[in-house]
Design a protein that fits this description.
It comes from Favolaschia claudopus. InterPro entries: LRR_dom_sf. By secondary structure, this protein is an alpha/beta fold. 35% of the residues lie in helices and 13% in strands. The relative contact order is 0.05.
């Protein structure tokens, strides 16, 4: 498009092309949630104007039609633009102001005579300045006014008081105002007491309220005969149904932006499970009646294969045919939520052994954490033995498992360090290897400690791609295991281990291994064995995660041991995250492969900020020539101007950017420098 002449496409077509990218939906513009929907860190849409002259000409009205101001710098930049080119202000139809932003707001409002929708936020701190807003509000005449305020503890200070007075005076002149999006609940806050008399005097036809519980109060407060609609902005949850007004007058003008949340809708769908179908015109019609039984079974089995996920018990109850054909699909993916479910699954498999080979996933998500699994110390020996026998019986009857163990997808974050994994005994692990070893692709578990066992059991897991290992089982006769064991293992997560397991792994080829997460804090003899492991497999690794004490022990030798790693992660099990020594992250020679460093810690101690200040002040990529990102899993970027100004993370991010390195938060969002006032 850039290389084309300005007249290569009609402006109308270019406008249609650019509109989806530049358009701000009314739902987003009018959003009054505490966290602004515009608190993102993506590329500014103004970048489209820089593509070519035709895009600049066509996109300018689209860009200025909806203006969102979130900082003093943005307000000043817009005021300068409008002062230099007053025609731009005529394009502004919607104006969202999330602060005070000082004198520039007067210039903006004075230059924007066509504002139809005005959004004002009362989340304004005493350090802000509302003089520009106060002077300029009476220069516009919107038809819709959206006001945002804290629901539970509204701010009260001098600058807000000044703004409320100016708003009251301006409301008298806003003769176009017919829609008011209200944050009020009848709590008699300063804003309510100041503004309500002026707003209720207006001839409104639509009133938008936060929730259904405010409907009766709103109707009694806004008694104008012109009021045609009371719109409930937030969706109605099941528990709020009883708050719907009984007054027929109120009900007649109630409108719901959204009846139910997606979560409630999904719950309704799952509860109904079978969709409502119009009754047949021929009640005695039988589908596929003329087809043979084999054809019927083949077709219905295929239909039920797609209909069963998620597990729908109701479909099994439709007919004997459905029960016979769908039962195996119902048990394909099993997630155990409660311990007692194990005995029920075992009974089903004992009664219907043909179901065993159809089970592909056996995972565990426990809600009762006090109940333990099979290795609870508080559990009596009889109970533990019974549960172990039950688990062994289940595993022995499932010959085609693809996934076994924890139902989580093992995200690399702080939850990994403190997660509880399902525990089984060694006999069950051997049964798992014997019955499903050839098909199993993912396995995550905690195995009770056993002394002097053969590692040959690992040879059975020919298809295993991901293994999470948490066990201090001691292996003997290490040379007995074939070096070709675990040929497809790509990802290895070691939560705790005995050094002998590392010796076993060091003997294997592990040709597919790419990712290692080592979370065992107890080094002891494991430190030496871990070095042996890295000497054998380090060059294969692309991603490596280590506890801080292990990285301290290895020092910068980790770059020589793992020369091809692209991501290095450092985790803490302690309450305070202490930065690594700078020497640890300075390789003795060039390390061109490393692109990202991740710091994982569940807690952030502000007392250590001084240490991190020093770390970031001294940090230079040096020989890490490809390093482009450092991520911390313990924070999210601030979402408003005040918090951004106070944030150490922002200052550190901007220091790193000078070296060409981005800082990202737990969501993976990279910091983008904000526009600054000069």
């Amino acid at each position: 498009m850039c290389g084309m002449r300005d007249n290569s496409l009609p402006d109308e077509l270019i406008s249609e092309i650019l509109s989806p990218a530049l358009k701000v939906s009314d739902e987003v513009f009018s959003n009054t949630d505490h966290v602004s929907p515009f608190s993102s860190y993506g590329e500014s849409t103004s970048a489209y104007l820089l593509v070519c002259k035709s895009w600049l000409r066509v996109a300018t009205p689209l860009l200025y039609s909806v203006v969102v101001l979130r900082s003093k710098a943005q307000a000043k930049a817009l005021a300068n633009a409008l002062s230099g080119n007053p025609e731009l202000g005529r394009f502004i139809k919607k104006l969202r102001v999330e602060g005070g932003f000082g004198p520039p707001m007067h210039t903006i409002l004075k230059s924007s005579p066509n504002v139809v929708d005005l959004f004002l936020a009362l989340e304004i701190y005493s350090s802000d300045n509302t003089t520009g807003l106060c002077k300029g509000l009476n220069l516009i005449n919107p038809s819709r006014f959206i006001l945002q305020d804290f629901r539970h503890k509204p701010l009260e200070n001098k600058v807000i008081s000044q703004l409320l007075v100016a708003l009251t005076q301006s409301l008298v002149k806003w003769n176009n105002l017919v829609v008011f999006d209200s944050p009020f609940h009848g709590h008699r806050t300063s804003a309510e007491k100041t503004l309500l008399p002026a707003i209720t005097a207006k001839q409104l036809h639509t009133l938008v309220i936060p929730s259904i519980s405010d409907a009766t109060w709103a109707h009694s407060t806004f008694t104008s005969s012109s009021l045609k609609v009371i719109e409930v902005k937030k969706p109605v949850e099941h528990w709020q149904q009883y708050k719907i007004p009984k007054d027929p007058v109120v009900l007649s003008i109630l409108k719901f932006t959204e009846e139910l949340t997606p979560k409630v809708k999904k719950a309704q769908e799952l509860s109904s499970e079978i969709p409502l179908i119009a009754p047949s015109l021929n009640p005695s019609y039988v589908p596929l009646a003329s087809a043979s039984k084999e054809v019927q079974d083949t077709l219905w089995a295929r239909i039920l294969y797609f209909a069963m996920p998620p597990r729908k018990l109701a479909l099994l109850l439709v007919s004997k045919t459905f029960y016979r054909l769908a039962l195996s699909h119902y048990y394909t993916h099993i997630n155990v939520h409660y311990i007692d479910a194990l005995s029920k699954i075992s009974s089903v498999l004992k009664r219907e052994p043909v179901l065993g080979p159809h089970i592909r996933t056996l995972s565990f998500t426990y809600y009762d954490w006090n109940d333990g699994f099979l290795a609870d110390e508080k559990m009596s020996g009889e109970v533990a033995s019974s549960r172990a026998e039950t688990m062994l019986a289940i595993v022995s009857r499932t010959s085609n498992l693809v996934r076994f163990g924890d139902s989580n997808r093992f995200s690399l974050d702080e939850s990994m360090l403190f997660h509880t994994y399902p525990s089984i005994d060694w006999d069950t692990f051997e049964a798992l290897a014997r019955c499903s070893g050839s098909s199993l692709r993912e396995c995550s578990l905690s195995i009770e400690t056993r002394k002097r066992v053969s590692p040959r059991v690992l040879e059975s897991f020919a298809s295993l791609r991901m293994l999470l290992w948490k066990s201090c089982t001691v292996f003997s006769a290490i040379s007995d295991v074939s070096v070709d064991a675990l040929p497809n293992l790509e990802e290895l997560r070691i939560m705790s281990t005995d050094p002998s397991f590392l010796s076993v792994l060091s003997r294997l080829k592990l040709q597919a291994l790419q990712r290692l997460i080592f979370a065992d804090m107890e080094l002891d003899d494991s430190g030496m064995k871990l070095r042996e492991f890295f000497k054998t497999h380090g060059p294969k690794l692309h991603e490596l995660c280590l506890p801080d004490n292990v990285l301290r022990d290895l020092g910068n030798k980790v770059f020589k041991l793992c020369p091809n790693m692209t991501t290095l992660s450092l985790s803490w099990h302690r309450f305070a995250s202490v930065p690594p020594k700078m020497e640890t992250l300075r390789p003795p020679e060039a390390a061109p492969s490393l692109e990202k460093i991740v710091f994982i810690g569940p807690y952030w101690d502000k007392g250590n900020h001084t240490l991190w200040h020093v770390f970031f002040a001294d940090f230079k990529p040096g020989r890490l020539s490809s390093l482009r990102e450092i991520q911390f899993m313990c924070f999210k970027w601030p979402t408003n101007e005040r918090d951004i100004a106070k944030s150490d993370w922002v200052r550190w991010a901007e220091k790193l950017l000078k070296h060409g390195v981005s800082l990202s938060d737990k969501t993976g969002t990279k910091w983008r420098p904000r526009l600054k006032v000069r």
